[in-house]
Structure formats: C-alpha cells, structure tokens
Design brief:
Helices cover about 35% and strands about 20% of the residues. By secondary structure, it is α/β, with parallel strands linked by helices. It binds ligand BES, manganese (II) ion and zinc ion. Manganese (II) ion (MN) binds next to loops.
C-alpha cells in the first residue's frame, strides 16, 4: 500500500473517486475539512451522523456511501475521542481504523483529511505522519499461501493520501516511521512463516538481508559455536536435522566509532516441540513463533539502520530448532555453557533459557555493551501473570528498566516489571550441576529470569518475556491479528529517546 501527502482539496471534484476519511471528536464534533464542504454535502454528513449512534468515541466508525454533493464513493467518519487523546498513538489509531474499514471495501484509494483540533497535543505534520504510520501498520497481511482467496476478501486499497497544509513537513516526519514500518513488516513476515520455511538457516539468511541497510551480519555455525564452548545452546539444537546458528548484526551509526554499543539479544527457537519433554499436540503449531524474540531483534536492527540512527548497536540471535530424536538432549543431561557454568537439563522444554545463556554470555564477552536487552517468548507462566496486555520486564538495573517501561508506554508496547532476587535461587539449585534449567511452576517466569541473570556477568541487563505479546488472536488498532512484531518499535524508541548522539 502506497502512502502520499498532499495539500487539502475538497472531495467535490471528480478526481476524488475513492473514499474520504475524516476524524470526528467525541460529541460529534466534525473537523474543518468536513465543515468546509458546500451546503448539500455538509448537510448529508450532518444528517447521517445525527441519524446514527456514532458520536465520535475512540474506535467508532461510520460509513456514508455515495453522499449527495460529493464525488467520492464513501465518506468514512472515524471517532477520535477527546482532543487531548490525539497524541501519536491516537493519530496512529485514526489511520489504522481508516485502513481497517477500507482495506477490502472495494475502494483502491482513500484520502484522509487531517484536521487538527484545538487541544490536540500534536502539530499537523506530526499528526499526519503518525496517522500514515498507523495506516501502513494496519494494512499488513500475510496471505502468500492463500491461493484461492475470493475477490471480495482480497485487499482493494492501494493508496492512502493524507491531506494537510503541512504536507511537506508531514512527508519528512513520515520518512523514519516508514523505515520502522518496513522493519515491523520484516519481523511479522518471519514470525508468520511456518517452521518448514523459517528454520535456523533460513532465518539467518533473512537477517543477512539487513546488509542492504548497512548492517554488518555474521553467521556462526555449529562448528564455530562448539569452539566457543556454547554447550548450552548447542544441546537444544542437537536433536534437529537443522544446523543451529548464531547471528551477529552490527550497526555502527554513532559518530564515535568506538562508543560502546547497545545490545539486543533474541531467543530464536524456530520450532519448539518441547524436545524429549514433548509438548501436548493441542496448540503445538503456535510454537512456530517461538523465534519472535529473535525476529524482533532483527527488526529492531533493521529499524535503527533503516532510519540511520546515530547509535552503535549489536543484535545477537540464537537460532535453534528444539526437536525430539535419537540425537536429542535427554532430561538429566548436564551441559557446559560458554560461561563455564554447568546446567542440569531437567526439562528439555525449558530450552529458551539454554539458548539465551550462551547468547547473553557471548554478547557481553565480545562487545562489552552499555547494556543488553533480551527478548524471548520464554514462559507460559508470564501469560498467566500478565495475560496479553503487558510483557514481563526483569532487570538488574533500575535506570534501564525505567527507560524501557517509558519507551514501551510511548509506543503502546507496555511492560510490567517483576522481581528478581536471590531468594528464588534455591528453586534452580541442582545436586549435580551449578544449576538446573527449571524451577518448578511457582514463579516460573521469575526463576527463568533468575537463571538468565547468571549469564549476564553483571552487565546492565533487562529481559523481556514476550510470550503473551508476540502473537495476537484479534485485530487491534494498528496490528492485525497474527504476528505483532512486539519489541521492534519499543527498542527503536528506547534508542531514539535515550541512546542516540545528540543532534
Ligand atoms: N516457548 C515456550 C514458552 C511459551 C509458551 C511461549 C506458550 C508462548 C506460548 C518455552 O520454551 C517453554 O516451553 N516454557 C515452559 C517452561 C517449563 C518447562 C519450565 C513453559 O512455560 O511451560
Ligand atoms: Mn519450550
Ligand atoms: Zn520455547
């Protein structure tokens, strides 16, 4: 779907064949664009609004087909709520709602009239840029395998034009957001792909496409990882016919070339069968998206490089397939991690922490980063704790935790902090090794985080348990159901607000 910006024109001329979208504040307050129409057209809108229950509440929409006096196919009114809600997320939701209503409507083009209402915290250009961002994000579809889609189910909308006097500034403000949307789409694509298509090697190949953005990408195979002593990660992949990979992505955007990087680390289990501790078959297909942490890490690197962020950043993803077979790791096996610490593998389904143990250790050891943030669909327990509204946040540093929470709030990818603490260590004590890989059902997300902490070497670190957030069963304002790319916009915002060179 194409996005364009242009100066306002009234939808009365024949050039406007498609849909026109206007925002309406709560209390049926129409914007200037709607009110600038001639008497007949304005009258048609006002009557339609009066006759309906639409009153401008956030998320409401009202479609008026072929209104008198207008050359357009339809006018779509979108409820904006209160003027003070018209921040970036409000503007994104506006664009998202427009696309949700029009994507398969039959219209090929939509013109969004960008009215900025008194009391709105955003300037016109920013409002238009964020509305466009929301429109693009909501237009995502993963339909490549639907070969028999009915015509009426296929997207018709090809172009969205945002009308504003500030069109030139809006276009400039949209440029970096457009790159972030590209990155979100890359992440959604790889998370959506089934595990027969996305496996460690093919996911590493997708990461290598970031080279076109100026990212340096290295792919380590099993031989190299063995040399590094990554027995913890390698143990997880040893039951699979697919070779495990570790991908290292580097973006050098800071003016200070030797400035310590920020580091992101992702769990990339391209399929989690559970291994010998095999999962029940109901719902096992969901475990194709057990690489969503890695996908978000790749996406965050693509976003930073795409918009040429003035920061040095490293992304490291551990890619493995967790399968049962004659070569698979057994419950009771003891593995030696790159850190030298030994782990008794009680449950082969607690594999994410085994992958991250070596990926985290490697990242701090090689790059001496300012901090590390890992993203992982790590525990079912986090879904019990927080449902699908917040990802779990764990950190050994309060400043990093606060910054992450603030960035999450700003982009609508919310985090809720849970505790770490020595008191939990007894749950992962092993009789035969330095620790075991499960701590029982009680506080399952916390003992998993407590396990990871042992591989951070006390570098500033945060862990985001995104198991409840990586995939959505329902459409939301700017995210169609399916892969959400949770974490991409969050990490990009973290860097933008706190770690880029000052302009
Ligand atoms: N990938 C799963 C966690 C998960 C569950 C993600 C549901 C998304 C939805 C992880 O590898 C796992 O299997 N965790 C186990 C840990 C347990 C064996 C200690 C879990 O949560 O049950
Ligand atoms: Mn598992
Ligand atoms: Zn897993």
């Amino acid at each position: 779907m194409k996005i364009a910006f242009s100066k306002p024109s009234l939808p009365t001329d024949a050039a406007h064949a498609g849909a026109v979208v206007a925002g309406v504040l709560e209390g049926k307050v129409l914007g200037a664009a709607a009110l600038a129409l001639d008497a007949a057209a304005k009258g048609a809108l006002v009557r339609a609004v009066a006759a309906s229950r639409f009153d401008g509440k956030k998320g409401q929409t009202l479609t008026i087909l072929a209104p008198a006096g207008l050359a357009v196919s339809r006018v779509l009114l979108v409820g904006l709520g209160k003027a003070k809600d018209l921040d970036a997320q409000g503007a994104q939701a506006f664009g998202g709602a427009a696309v949700a209503a029009l994507l398969t409507s039959g219209d090929a083009e939509a013109t969004i009239a960008v009215d900025v209402f008194d009391g709105s915290p955003l300037a016109d250009a920013e409002f238009a840029a964020h509305a466009a961002f929301g429109a693009r994000l909501r237009s995502y579809r993963f339909d490549k395998y639907l070969t028999r889609q009915k015509k009426e189910d296929k997207p018709s909308l090809k172009k969205v034009v945002l009308n504003t006097e500030a069109y030139a500034a809006a276009k400039t403000a949209f440029a970096p957001l457009d790159k972030i949307a590209d990155a979100v789409f890359l992440t959604r694509d790889v998370v959506s792909e089934p595990a027969n298509i996305i496996h460690p090697e093919s996911l590493a190949a997708r990461a290598e496409t970031l080279e076109s953005l100026g990212v340096e990408v290295e792919v380590l195979g099993e031989k190299q990882m063995k040399k590094l002593g990554m027995g913890s990660l390698l143990g997880v992949g040893q039951g699979s016919d697919r070779e495990s990979k570790l991908v290292v992505m580097r973006w050098q955007g800071s003016a200070q070339k030797d400035e310590a990087p920020v580091a992101f680390v992702g769990k990339g289990v391209t399929f989690d069968s559970g291994g010998i501790s095999i999962k029940p078959s109901a719902g096992m297909e969901d475990m194709k998206w057990d690489m969503a942490g890695a996908a978000a890490t790749i996406g965050a690197m693509a976003a930073l490089a795409g918009r040429k962020a003035k920061v040095n950043a490293v992304g490291v993803v551990g890619l493995v397939e967790n399968m049962p077979s004659g070569t698979a790791q057994r419950p009771g096996d003891v593995v030696i991690s790159m850190s030298g610490q030994t782990i008794e593998v009680i449950n082969t389904d607690a594999e994410g922490r085994l992958v991250l143990a070596d990926a985290l250790w490697y990242t701090q050891d090689r790059f001496k980063p300012k901090f590390m943030v890992d993203l992982a669909t790590l525990t079912g327990a986090i879904i019990i704790s927080l449902g699908h509204e917040y990802a779990g946040l764990f950190a050994n540093d309060d400043k990093l935790a606060d910054r992450l929470a603030a960035a999450g709030k700003a982009v609508g990818e919310q985090l809720w902090r849970l505790p770490l603490g020595e008191a939990y260590d007894k749950q992962i004590k092993s009789d035969i090794a330095d620790m075991k890989n499960t701590g029982g059902r009680e506080g399952g997300s916390i003992t998993a985080a407590q396990f990871l902490k042992r591989f951070t070497n006390d570098v500033h670190w945060a862990h985001l348990d995104i198991a409840g957030m990586a995939w959505s069963k329902k459409d939301t304002a700017i995210t169609p159901k399916g892969a959400t790319a949770f974490g991409v916009r969050l990490l990009d915002r973290l860097v933008a607000d706190f770690y880029e060179d000052k302009k």
